[in-house]
Amino acid sequence: MNRHASSGTVTSPSRPIVVAIDWALGGDYRYTQALSGLGTSAGKRIDSRRMSRVLKFVSEHIAGNVTVTDLAGAACMSPAHFARSFKATTGQCPHEFVRQIRLALAKQMLANRHLPISDIALSTGFSSQSNFSRAFRAATGTTPRDYRAGA
Known about the structure:
Layout: E1 2-3, E2 10-11, H1 15-24, H2 27-36, H3 48-61, H4 68-75, H5 79-90, H6 94-110, H7 117-123, H8 129-140, H9 144-150
Antiparallel strand pairs: 1-2
Helix pairs in contact: 1-6, 3-4, 4-5, 7-8
């Protein structure tokens, strides 16, 4: 995924993933802040090149089991150093970031009433519909079915 600084446009294999990543990072301001490392010490932040590789990895593997070790590998860092640096850069733990992307993508997919909730759960990386429903309810205060009915 590339975010072009001059135009602000995003190119990636999947627009819903880009929107989910942007939402998980808190919109354009926080995305720019994360990539520039503002507010963090220079030794702890992840540079924009590595962060772009991490975001690309997440967008390409969101349906699978994404681990901190996988993300660290994409950034060419040790898992412990990556986890500390990621939190310093984005303000959130890597696993929380991935969970937020999954839930944001699921919200977008729930708007399509033809997709079964179980398919949405599996395509967003949850191991089962019950795990998805539990995480969704914890994050939003409502079930996926009720969210879909209100969408």
